[in-house]
Design a protein that fits this description.
alpha/beta; Rossmann fold; 5 strands; globular; 3-dehydroquinate dehydratase activity; amino-acid biosynthesis; EC 4.2.1.10
């Protein structure tokens, strides 16, 4: 039996407020519920999932450096950083393992400023618009990528 592959699931600003923040857009599941769903699916897929959330751009950049240095795959929901954080984009570009961008809502059905992602061009792929299922789809895609590498 092989050891589970470490994976970081990184969440940007305001995602810790899931369940109370705009439930019509982000659903009613709490952040703790998201963590439970991701870690449980990770176990099924042979992934050791660590879920983190920050409102700090600097902390997120540090986590991306950590992942690059250790060749850890990443699922990232950059939140509002998606649209303007070139520091985060540059950190994500240093990836040494797959990196999948996720969004709970579909940014293209929302305000115009949300239509641009500075992360997408350096990600392995982007999954958006499936609620918290976007994370599950990303973890499944990541597991698939890791088995075909």
């Amino acid at each position: 039996m092989t050891a589970p592959v470490p994976v970081l699931v990184l969440n940007g600003p305001n995602l810790g407020r899931l369940g109370s923040r705009e439930p019509d857009v982000y659903g009613s599941t709490s952040y703790a519920g998201l963590v439970a769903r991701c870690t449980a699916l990770g176990l099924e897929l042979g992934l050791d999932v660590s879920v983190r959330e920050t409102n700090s751009e600097a902390e997120m950049v540090g986590w991306l450096h950590e992942a690059a240095d250790a060749k850890i795959p990443v699922v990232i929901n950059p939140g509002a950083f998606t649209h303007y954080s070139y520091a985060m984009r540059d950190a994500a570009a240093q990836r040494t393992a797959p990196l999948i961008e996720v969004h709970i809502s579909n940014p293209y059905t929302r305000e115009t400023f949300r239509h641009t992602s500075v992360i997408a061009a350096v990600a392995s792929g982007t999954i958006a618009g499936f609620g918290l299922g976007s994370y599950e789809l990303a973890l499944r895609a990541l597991a698939e990528q890791l088995t075909t590498r």
